């Protein structure tokens, strides 16, 4: 491509951006990342079913900090987003999109941070088109946006497809029915790389939203990821296992498994934050190894399983009764409560090993006082995971 071609493309891109900016609703602050769109049934007739997802939503968003977009009324998924915004306050900015002429059977939800009005006489495709215009005008790339879908009718069906067409990641909750279920059977969309089906599990949905924990510095992240993998190879060494992709030495390990180890290293910060722990470099004495309580083990093991669920689902894995590595099928893509005890133990052992593995790289876990909430600076220290990052190949 010549310089002239690049300049032409840049000019066209700027013109397109200006055109989008002219269509955005005025008088509002730009949206801040991360942006989550919550889509689903808002019909009063399905209100009882949607309320069954209330606690799941509250748990799923407990660690989220960012922007949530939804329908802005008190019914269905829109009402659930109102519940989330009310519970978590300033951590979450909830934005509702509704037509100026709201249907008589629907009530504007005053708990939202803000309501934005379209020129419609009823809910229609105008609302999703407008929020996408506002997202793009805020400088948020569609590829960085996630959409969570529960059930849904005609408008939700359009929202799912618009999001996929723009390159967003769309996750629908398994067995929620409606247009979410139909989307998974739609031959035009069901094989989309941006479409995943999440179990109706708060911790897995929470992991899908993303952690506030920053990625580690690249060199340190790589060192820790390799340590995780080598420990995994040591623990799992056997004749049958040695033929699987996860048995390879680091240099020959498939990229998706290297990334799995890297992401697990990052995620330990979030786990330790949940139990009010920090990690510190130790150079002048022996490192004291922490022993987690059973409750802490259970919590962090469940978090690790949820992280693994999302990692695999985003990589194209599907649930199936029998494991098939080549076809990316696993029987373990289920909520924590449905895992066999022996599989739960894999995740618990992963968590149990964290203090020892940290000690190998000169780091010590320390418990904070309850409510302190302090987390050490990732520029000063880091944490690592353990041997089970590649469980998807088991």
Helix and strand topology:
Layout (H helix, E strand, L loop, with lengths): L2 H21 L11 E6 L6 H5 L2 H7 L5 E5 L5 H13 L3 E8 L14 E5 L7 H12 L8 E5 L3 H13 L2 E5 L4 H8 L9 E4 L3 H8 L8 H19 L18 H20 L2 E5 L12 H21 L3 E2 L9 E2 L10 H12 L1 H7 L2 E5 L27
Parallel strand pairs: 1-2, 1-5, 2-3, 3-4, 5-6, 6-7, 9-10
Antiparallel strand pairs: 8-11
Helix pairs in contact: 1-5, 3-8, 8-11, 9-10, 10-11, 11-12
Provide structural commentary.
- The chain contains 13 helices and 11 strands.
- By secondary structure, it is an alpha/beta fold.
- The protein has 2 domains: 3-209, Rossmann fold (3-Layer(aba) Sandwich); 218-393, no CATH class.
- The strands form 3 sheets. It has a 7-stranded parallel β-sheet with strand order 4-3-2-1-5-6-7, with helices on both faces.
- Helix 4 links the parallel strand 2 and strand 3.
- The termini are far apart.
């Amino acid at each position: 491509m010549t310089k002239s071609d690049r300049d032409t493309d840049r000019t066209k891109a700027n013109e397109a951006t200006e055109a989008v900016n002219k269509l955005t609703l005025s008088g509002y602050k730009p949206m801040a990342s991360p942006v989550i769109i919550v889509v689903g049934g808002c019909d009063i007739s399905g209100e009882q079913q949607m309320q069954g997802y209330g606690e799941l939503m509250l748990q799923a968003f407990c660690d989220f900090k960012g922007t949530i977009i939804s329908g802005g009324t008190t019914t269905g998924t829109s009402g659930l987003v109102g519940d989330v915004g009310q519970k978590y306050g300033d951590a979450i900015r909830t934005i509702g999109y509704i037509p100026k002429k709201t249907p008589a059977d629907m009530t504007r939800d005053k708990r939202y941070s803000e309501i934005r009005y379209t020129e419609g006489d009823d809910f229609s495709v105008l609302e999703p088109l407008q929020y996408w215009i506002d997202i793009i005008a805020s400088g948020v790339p569609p590829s960085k946006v996630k959409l969570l879908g529960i059930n849904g009718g005609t408008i939700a069906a359009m929202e799912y497809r618009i999001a996929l067409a723009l390159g967003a990641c769309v996750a629908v909750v398994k067995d929620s029915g409606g247009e979410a279920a139909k989307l998974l059977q739609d031959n035009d969309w069901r094989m989309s790389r941006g479409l995943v089906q999440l179990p109706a599990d708060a911790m897995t949905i929470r992991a899908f939203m993303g952690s506030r924990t920053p990625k580690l510095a690249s060199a340190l992240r790589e060192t820790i990821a390799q340590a995780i993998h080598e420990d995994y190879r040591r623990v799992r060494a056997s004749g049958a296992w040695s033929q699987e992709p996860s048995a390879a030495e680091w240099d020959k390990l498939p990229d998706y498994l290297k990334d799995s180890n890297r992401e697990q290293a990052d995620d330990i910060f979030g786990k330790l934050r949940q139990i009010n722990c920090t990690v510190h470099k130790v150079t002048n004495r022996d490192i004291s190894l922490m022993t987690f309580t059973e409750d802490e083990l259970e919590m962090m093991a469940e978090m690790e399983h949820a992280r693994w669920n999302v990692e695999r689902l985003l990589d194209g894995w599907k649930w199936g009764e029998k494991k098939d590595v080549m076809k990316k099928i696993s029987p373990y893509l289920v909520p924590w409560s449905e895992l066999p005890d022996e599989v739960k133990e894999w995740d618990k052992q992963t968590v149990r090993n964290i203090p020892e593995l940290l000690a190998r790289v000169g780091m010590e876990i320390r418990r904070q006082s309850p409510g302190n909430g302090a987390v050490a600076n990732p520029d000063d220290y880091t944490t690592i995971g353990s041997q089970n990052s590649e469980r998807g190949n088991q």
